[in-house]
Amino acid sequence: MSLVALVALCGAGALAAGCSSGDGTLSQQVRSWAGNSGWTSTVATMTGDLGRLSSIQSESPGVRRTVCDVLVTDALNANQQLPTPDTSLTELLSQAYTRAGDAGRDCYAGGARLALAPAEQHQAQRLLVEAEARYDSITSSLGGQ
Length: 145
Prior knowledge:
Elements: H1 3-10, H2 12-17, H3 26-37, H4 39-53, H5 61-79, H6 87-109, H7 117-139
């Protein structure tokens, strides 16, 4: 298959993450995507970034902006791993990364917008947990998908 055909089939973001050609079960495809994209590391990074937002309220504006900017950057990078072979997993991750980016931008802006960040942070964390549960249900050897 030519590179042009592969890009057309998978989309540019999926190409970087190792798009599956549809071979194998959904479980196999999702496992392959996770391994090729580095998803486990991404979830750990996003979880850590989101957790740091809670502890920076009393920090200097420079420290706060740095932490918030890192979150935005990591959310944008994580989004580049999408789509996954599973539509539901893709949607959960897309929403989580969007909320994380929103939290980072509002945190960075400060002022009245800083008050929005905690709710967005919690939404992103909840969506990441849901995405991990979806991943587990797809890839579990206990039945499921």
